[in-house]
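Standup notes
- DV: blocked on the single-chain target, sequence here:
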Amino acid sequence: MPRRDFQGQILNAASSLLGISLIVIAGLNVTHTNRTTLADEVAWVSAVLLALSCILSYLALRAAPRETRAGVWADRIFLLGLAALFLSIVVLALNNR
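- DV (later): unblocked, structure below
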C-alpha cells in the first residue's frame, strides 16, 4: 500500500489523540495537579506535536496522489506526539504513587 494511503488514517488517529491530550490537560487543571507534576507540560508538548501532525497529514491529503514531504513529516511527528502522550501518562502515574 503506498505511503499516501496512510495519511487519512494518520489524520484520524492524530486528531483523536489530540483530543485525549487536551482532556488530560483539562483534567490536570481541574484537579490542580498541574502545579505538582510535569505531566501537564509533557501533555502540552504532545498536543502541539499531534496538532502539527494533523496539519501536515491534511496537507499531504490535499497533495494526493503524489507523495510529499508533509506526509513523511506527519508520520514522524505523529510518532513523537504519541510518545509524548505516553510519557505524560507515565509521569502522572508515577507522581500519584
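- Follow-up: Residues 69-95 form the longest helix (27 residues).
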